[in-house]
UniProtKB/TrEMBL annotation:
SUPFAM superfamilies: FAH. InterPro entries: FAH, Fumarylacetoacetase-like_C, Fumarylacetoacetase_C_sf. This is Fumarylacetoacetate hydrolase. Keywords: Hydrolase, Metal-binding. Residues 205-351 form the Fumarylacetoacetase-like C-terminal domain. GO terms for molecular function: hydrolase activity; metal ion binding. It comes from the Bacteria. It holds the Pfam family FAA_hydrolase.
Amino acid sequence: MVKRFTPSALPADHEYALLAGRVMFEGDPRPVIVRGGRVLDVSRAVDTVADLLDLNDPASVQGDDICGVDELTVGEGDYALLSPIDLQCVKACGVTFAVSAIERVIEERARGSADHAAAIRAELEHRVGSGIRNVVPGSDNAAELKAALIDAGMWSQYLEVAIGPDAEVFTKAPVLSTVGWGAAVGIRSDSTWNNPEPEVVLAINASGAVVGAMLGNDVNLRDFEGRSALLLGKAKDNNAACALGPFIRLFDSSFGIEDVRSAELDLRIEGPEGYLLEGHSSMNQISRDPLELVQQTLSEHHYPDGFALMLGTLFAPVQDRDEPGRGFTHKVGDKVHIHSPKLGTLTNEVVHSCDAPAWEFGIRELYRSIRKRHAVAAA
């Protein structure tokens, strides 16, 4: 049975939104724009989404009507909706909310064991909760709080990036490895403590300008990262462990950086056993401004194909699922819905990474596809 895209997953005001993404058409991942419920192939004008984001006025690009949004599918074949980015590197900022900072310290102190999380959470909330929520990272007050926490034996590398001058920035996923709406998202089969991370994700072009935003799921293995921060790569970068979409909403008169700063995100997880978890994240609670995080990511480096930047999450997975005190962890079959009114809804189902479709379409395949596309157009 073919799974189709749900038009209700579009932004609430999609008739005014400028949406960009990718669709597999005739075996070729085409850059597209969505207008009036129709999917327009813009590959005659630009080879990739990265090229599209570099244009001064993406809205002016002409495209060929290939299908309606209700005809988009998941998986292989024509009209298959893909992750909306292609050549962009996927970067991520962690510990950008006070609650997530406390949760990372819990993982560290629990050495990746969910059994000890509840008691540690209570102690940390009592000792540092109010202080970390009210301090500006990198400020004199933050330095004073750091000194006090060091004296109390409560300091952590996670608190360093939460309230210190430098944000945590890491590479979440290789180029072309992300999955889109409706695709499976993966957790390692040897992980016993993990969770989704619902986030707003910025789209930055080759000039370093923020040109749009989308939703993302930074799937995280709490047991791996909790054992050692040096396992961050294994905790974050796994097959199908980064979902983006459903489309990039490009900045225009109806949507801009202020909408990102004020975005509200809702998380809903439906378990195969009837379990239900609902959470909420408000971008106005972020400890560093999104544009500051972009600048810290750019640093002294340059991204010639642009990049996507995950901004972190307020979601704290503390609701017990199976045993009291163990909090939340995924089960195979979980359906994860991340919603924000102006960005739409990103929906994915959890599987083990080894059971998710293998990532086989890499950079070489993209180049071959583009060459074939041009050859057909020239014939």
